[in-house]
Amino acid sequence: MSRPPPDSERSDPPIPDSGADTAPDIRISVQVGHLDAHSTRERKVFSYVIRIENHHDQTWQLLARHWDIVDAHGHEINVDGDGVVGEQPVIAPGGTFVYDSFVTVEATPGVMRGYYVMQDAWGARVRVPIPAFMLDVPGQRTLN
To answer: How far is CA 30 from CA 9, 101, 117, in A?
Structure first.
């Protein structure tokens, strides 16, 4: 493991707008399901399970999250917060963190996407994109 330069020589880069070119090899996968028993005509409820895999050679900590949630009417909700489900997990090389949560939308189909702010052991921060996923009710058809 290499040592970081002394603080006087160190210049932490700002968090990039997109982690696509600069993010470490951290892989995000999502499974989503409609919760019919908890949904109403006015509000559809979805659960999602997120798996975060660290394929990088360094340990990373998930500090914060950002979500953009858009329903079928174009209503957009932005959510920012510390960590996920009350935790700021530290994910070692080869490690995995899995959590589940839920979201509601007024009209389907909707889409949800975002990013995690992650930090390495030296304090460098990056945005790791969360792939977009659909919030849709299986078998629901819209007639025009």
So the answer is: 39, 11, 17
15 against 50, higher pLDDT:
50
Name the residue type at position 121.
Answer: A
Which residue, 118, 83, 117, is CA-closest to 101?
83
Q: What DSSP string runs through 9-27?
A: T--PPPPPS-TTTT--SEE
Per-residue DSSP letters for 95-120? Answer: -EEEEEEEEEESSSSEEEEEEEEEEE
| CA 72 to the chain's CA centroid | 21
- Euclidean distance between the first and the last CA atom of the chain, given in angstroms as a whole number: 60
Residue with tokens 């975060």: 52
pTM, two decimals, is 0.80
> Which residue carries 């078998």 as its tokens?
139
Closest listed residue to residue 24, CA positions, set 130, 126, 132, 96: 126
